[in-house]
Amino acid sequence: MSKFTESLQNWWRKRREKNLIEKRENEAVKMDPAHKPILIVVCVLFSIYSITLFFPLVWLFVNSLKDKIIFLNNP
């Protein structure tokens, strides 16, 4: 083999190895099972928080559609 083909093969081999290393680094990291309860608690807290923000917005929207007389009689 000529030096050119050897250098080309070496270059290609290094490029493949570099791509494989980058691919492994970019793969998703598996979550530790000990963190699962913490994640559940955080999700529940955020869900409760979002619900507490959602209902006042619905109440405002519904009351904005009422007439003046209906609103004064039944706020």
Describe what you observe in this structure.
Helices cover about 80% and strands about 0% of the residues. The protein has about 80 residues and is mainly alpha-helical. The chain folds into 2 domains: about 1-30; about 30-75. The chain is elongated. About 0% of the residues are buried.
Overview features:
75 residues; mainly alpha; 2 domains; transmembrane; transmembrane helix; membrane
Distance between the termini: 90 Å
Please work out how many helical segments DSSP would assign: 3
User: Overall pLDDT, averaged?
Assistant: 86
Structural class: mainly alpha
* Secondary structure: number of strands: 0
Beta-strand share of residues: under 5%
Question: How large is the radius of gyration?
Answer: 30 Å
Q: Report the sheet with the most strands, covering strand number, pairing sense and barrel closure.
A: none
* Proportion in helices: over 70%
Counted up, domains total 2
Order of helices and strands: HHH
Shape: elongated
> Which blocks of ≥5 consecutive residues have pLDDT under 50?
none
